[in-house]
Each structure stands twice: as C-alpha cells, then as structure tokens.
Amino acid sequence: MAAAAVTVLAAGCGGGDGEEQATSPSYYLSLGDSLSVGVQPDENGAPAETSEGYTDVLHRTLYDADSTLRHERMGCGGEDTTTFLQGGLPDCDERYENGSQLEEAEAFLAEHEGRVDLVTLTIGGNNFTRCVEGVEDPETPEDIGIDEECVADGLERVETEIPVIAERLRDAAGPDTQIIGMTYYNPFLALLLLDDAPEEEATEAAAEAEGEEAEEPDGDAEVESTEDDSLAEYSVDILTELNESLIASYSAAGIDVADVDTVFESDNTEVPADSDTGMPTNLQNICDLTWMCDTRRGPDIHTNQAGAKEIAAVFAEQVH
C-alpha cells in the first residue's frame, strides 16, 4: 500500500519541463521528539540517536517506490509541545536557524513549496516524561510516583498547543501535502514488573525481543505483575486522555492520525493462553517493543528496532 501511495505522490509533484519534473526530488519531512530521530540506549544505557527510528524505516519503505524521495529529519530528542513551538532546549535550538522546530519546519515547507509529499509529527509525550519519578532505579520501586500537578500541566499544554501546531503546519504545508500525526504508547506499564519480577527473567525477555542470545529460561518461569498496580493504571488513564486530545486536534486541522497505540494495545490486560511469561498483552508488548524491561540498557521508554518497525507500519497504512 505504501509503495502504491508513493507512486501516486511522485506522479503529482514537481514542475517545469518533463526532464526537470522527472529528476526533481520530492521530500518527506519528519518532525518531533526523540522517537522521530531513533533514540535508543547505547551499550552503556545512554540515549543516542540512531538511523533506526520509525521515520527512517518509513522512508526506506517509501524510497523503494520513489528513489527521488529525500528524508529531511528535523526532530530533536527532548522536545515537548512548548519547546516545539517556542524553542528553549539548548541542544535542539542549535539545530534550528529559524528559532524553534516549528519555525524551521515552516521555513522548509515555504522553500520547498509543492515538493513536500509527506510530513510526519510525533510530539506531546515529553509533556509527561518528567512526571514519573524514580523509574530510573528499578531497585527501589517504593520510590516511584507520579506528580499529578505535572500531569495536569502537561495535559493543559497538549490541549492548548497541539491545535496551534497543527494549524500552523497545515497552513505552511498547504492542502496537497499529507500530514500524519501520531498517538503514543504507554511505556510505564512496565511499572507492573518492578516489585516482583526477577531481574534475570526480565533480561531474558528483553533479549528475546531483540533477537539476541540469552540463556534458556527455566521451564515454567513466569514474570508476575505487582499487586499494587495503581500507578500503571493511572498511566493508562493519562495516555487515554493524551491520545484523545491529539486525535481531536489533528483531525480538526485536517491531519491524518497514525494510531500507534493500537499496536501496543495499552488497554488489553488479557493474558494470552499461549503466553510463556504470564504477562498481559499490553505489558508484553511494552517488553517486546521498547527497552523498558531490559535491565542491561534500560529501563528506557524508547522503542527498540522491532518497535520502530511496528510504528512505521502504522504510518505506512495511512500514506495515500
């Protein structure tokens, strides 16, 4: 489907005489936070940009059908809705001659008018990452908590700033450029593991998800969830409100939505009959597709390569 979509897009872009139109490049502009630039933990657990983000996977899929399609990767790790609009993160601001990431995107769209076929956007998750306290140290689960004032502020900024971002991007891109925004998954479901899960079992589950070598688990070993799962449940409520707000704002601005949370199934608490771990589906997906259950490099909220491929596939289904 993605290949057919790019063929249609390529046929309609460009200008001038036939030779210029045939050789003129078209563009895919990706915007957003660390997910858009493939951030993953390195061997020491430090976050690092990679060429294996969902935007890179998506570009490779589209490039197979249109070798003139160039990927302008403009995202920056740490961006939230406020800094995306206004700037303010030193490591990000130095990338943008025009001020904020949004202003840089507007300038790029103006300069390449009529040649940008696709824009993808991932923003809003960092409004909440600082609201969860103590998750970096899984050895002390009793110290983990969620700052409710931080959550309320994050939601308010999503509700007021995403509509502005969406409208400005739509105005800058024009009616013929497809824009796709993204919903989020819930990495903090992994809080369910922190009280009772043996470290070696979580490590083995993560290694298997990455296709790496791991020792064979004991025959009937299971990872059990905590009895006190109120924090994880609260994180599901937050995610639901966040995603509902994103979908409403994007739809109102004529922006398509890649509903990534459908892949992660954050609401699915059923344990599959053939499960080897005893984990509910939503928690298993977080362990399989992110670094949250990896005790060597994580816990880390970012997707691994498998997760990036899954997200890219959701975006590809929306491309037309």
Short note summarizing the structure:
The protein has 320 residues and is of the alpha/beta class. The protein has helices spanning 2-12, 18-23, 54-63, 81-86, 90-93, 101-111, 148-173, 199-209, 230-252, 261-264, 281-289, 305-318, and strands at 26-32, 40-41, 47-48, 69-73, 116-122, 132-133, 145-146, 178-182, 256-258.
What labels would you give this structure?
320 residues, two-stranded antiparallel sheet, single chain, five-stranded parallel beta sheet, 12 helices, alpha/beta, 9 strands, disordered N terminus
Secondary-structure element sequence? HHEEEHEHHHEEEHEHHEHHH
For the biggest sheet, the summary is: 5 strands, parallel
**Arithmetic mean of pLDDT:** 85
Count of separate DSSP helical elements: 12
Return residue spans where pLDDT drops below 50 for at least 5 consecutive residues: 1-21, 195-206, 212-228
Widest sheet: strand ordering = 4-1-5-8-9
Q: How far do the termini sit from each other?
A: 8 Å
Query: Rg from C-alpha positions?
Result: 20 Å
Structural class estimated from helices and strands = alpha/beta
Q: How many distinct beta strands?
A: 9
Q: What is the general shape?
A: globular
The helix content, as a percent range, equals 40-55%
How much of the sequence lies in strands comes to: 5-15%
